[in-house]
Amino acid sequence: MVKVRAARAAEAEALTGLVMRSKAHWGYDAAFLAACAPELRIRPDEVTARRIVVAEGPQGTVLGLASLEGAGPLATLGLLFVEPSAIGQGVGRILYRDVLRRAVQQGVRRLVIDSDPHAAGFYRAMGAVAAPTGPAAAATAGAAEAADTADTDGAVRSADRSGRLVRFEAAPAPLADWARAWTGGGRAVHVGNVAEFNAQFGDSSLDREQAAAHHYSCLAAFYSPCPSALVLPRAVPAGWTDLVCRQLGWTGVEVYDGLVERGPGLADAVRARPALAARLTGAGEPLVPWGLTRPFGLLTGRPWRSGELRYESKAAAHGLFERILAEGGHPGIVLPAQVRAATRWSAARLLAARARAGKSTVVKSEHGVGGSGTTVVTAGQVRAAGGARAVLRRLPRGPLLVEEFVEGPPDPGAARDLTYDGFVDADGGLHEVGAALMDVTAGAYRGATVGPGVVPDWAEKPVLAFGAAVGRELAASGYRGWFDVDFVADAAGRLAPTETNLRLTGPAIAFMVAARLDALRGAGHLVRIADRVELGARLPEAQLEELCADLARACADLGAVFVPAIPTGAFDPAPWMGVLVAAHSPEALDAAESLVRAGAAAVGAMFDAPASAAP
């Protein structure tokens, strides 16, 4: 295992030799190397002043070095060299991330890197953002030198007198305050109890077999910015966790999977294995579930509070919204009328009356996830079906809520579906995580995007204010844990809250990954989670891993990050996978998503025999 330590003054001559070998590896001629030698030389008295560190292999061999030069808030990445025999082993990546970590500790908020074209791919893949070059930019670079590299694992730096420099910048950032508060700033055990959480609500709109929930449990990889262990009901490919850990810079993550192939009882399955339960609960690390359940409380010793999840009910949440709005202070928020139908026939009468008036209606089950149990019904659909009763026959059994439909903005590209995420800590303190833009199609959640500038200015303030008001009420009611509040925008630019979710969510996963990437690669990441990316064919496990590795490399070339979020859907009869993509700009984010969707769809092409090849 490679470790990073401070360089010693006595190593200056040996480190200079490493630098020259590394530089020569890329084919520079003797004359050029001789010209560079004075600038590449490391003197004993510079080792401390330039904050030089070395990467050391298991046998104590020095594999590379890096320097962080200047003082905050502006500094430069001065040296970054890797021993030629170690290039391609991740040493450069480890050194670069160490530079960012140390920069945060020293108050650096802008790290400047001047690179020649050989190094551009490395810095782009590491999350640095290209910046304009020129006299003004050069003046801020200080001691920054050019970089040369042939891959994304070993960057070699030296002054390049040809002037062929590409400027990059990174914004070193600490882990977000809310992320530190979520798990105390340390690692956590992630328990993927999605099916267990859903099963405690007796709503018929929820899948009895919970197959989809077991797929969604793969998101346990992302329940906090830094896991120590993943506890999963279904077996997952080993290569998946390896790639996720590589992309997010995690090490030492233990995986306990295949505990519940059918049925919802993950926490009970852990409790039935006393050695595993003791290992998970005895390490002093918090256990983070998808949502709170009685079995999870028994596993962790957390008291189960009766009624703590009552606002998971859409009717109860509507009543909560009504009480908050009655107190005033939220002029940008409106609440659609909602009626709980006593019987299916009363629901039919309400739906029919709205249809006669030419109005669309939202019909909801009391509970549901990802849009399950929620149906938008237009007046035309009621007529085409032969009446309201015929429409309701196709909906899940159980109690129904009949709600006024909120007409959206006239511009189809305008923000429509938004969400607020936050959590209540063990002491009842409210922590705001942020607002996100959701992708909702025909009432069904498809994904979300988080990050700077994602939520329009006109919507952000009312979303945050109303979401915080809901959080305070949840805290007062005794709820402790993650929650979100979902909204739809109306034609007048107002926001209508539609439900609360007292658990982690798809947008929550995107927030977790954004917090990790900001700390790992520099601030300002946009992160998009897409629940379902169709695959062109079912692939064997090895080929799925190869596809994901190819997509990760292709996205890195764009300066983006690809993380396969849900791999197990790839083995369904109609194969798919959930994905996360991240970038520092909307353009790169959209390009990465398009690349991933196209690459996933194209895997079926290898099975399409040309017509001319037919016998």
Strand order of the largest sheet: 22-21-18-19-20-23-25-24
The portion of residues forming beta strands comes to 15-25%
Question: What structural class do you assign from the helix and strand content?
Answer: alpha+beta
Number of DSSP helical runs: 21
Morphology: elongated
- Overall residue-averaged pLDDT value: 89
Give a quick account of the main beta sheet: strands, pairing sense, barrel closure: 8 strands, antiparallel
Which runs of at least 5 residues are low in confidence (pLDDT < 50)? 135-163, 611-615
Strand tally is 25
In helices, the fraction of residues equals 25-40%
Between the first and last Cα atoms, what is the distance in angstroms?
A: 55 Å
Q: Any idea what the radius of gyration is?
A: 27 Å
Structural summary, described in words:
The chain is an alpha+beta fold. Helices cover 36% and strands 24% of the residues. It has an eight-stranded antiparallel beta sheet, sandwiched between helices. Mean pLDDT is 89; it is low at 135-163 and 611-615.
